[in-house]
Task: structure prediction
Amino acid sequence: MAFADDLLADAFHLASRGGKKPKQSSLRRAVSTAYYALFHLLIDDFVAHWELEHQRARLGRMFEHRKMREATFKPVNKNSPTSIESDLSKVIEAFLRLQDDRYAADYDVAKVWSRSDVLTTLALAEQAFKSWRSIRKEKIAQDHLLSMFGARRG
Amino acid sequence: MPTLPAGVYKEAEIASAVAEVEKLLAPHVVRIRYEITTDWNDDWAVYFRVVLSDKASKKNRLREVVANIEAQLAERLDYDALGLYHYHHYRSKSEQAELRGKAWP
Result:
């Protein structure tokens, strides 16, 4: 099982802890871990194409949360996107939402998470995994990873 | 603070969409509140905070119910045109009773 899958499984495990009275610490860690699961899924896919295996970890560390967020994508025809474009849009939307959730979970101690909320966040991550895996070999998906890395579109 | 997006001026449009979805999806949706503010990256966003019935919040129904709420909102609101990112948060009716007064993510 890949590292990203392990992280997502960990997120579900954390969210299920505590019976009817889950601890905020578990819920927050679940949300944060779900974001990092998707983050690593995308990064691992990008660096896997780098021929020099010993450089992949360093390359992966060059990804920045903000740059990844700022990578834009618009379907050729907004009103009639292809299924690949729709899946890519779903992954991008999930990434943005998980990133905001992760920020709240890690830094905003005043906010209180419910398990229902956390489960919807994890479902979003799980769906993003499925969508990404169905399109990951497509050119637009790989081009988007390059944009997330920080490369300008030509 | 970034420039104000169209969504700030078109709040009535958002309120109307929210009211419609609330009505359409009752009793699964108990209520939807929203707030237009900036997100972690200082970008303008609308945060929806949805209270669901306990029945709709059950594990085996939650995904379907949430997907429907988000699809109905997206059908009525063009987030790109409004210049808003959109985030959704959920509590069940009993969670809300227990957490009343405590801030939502």
In short: The first strand of chain B starts at residue 29 and ends at 38. The longest helix of chain B spans residues 59-76. The two ends of chain B are 21 Å apart (CA to CA). Chain B has one domain: 6-95.
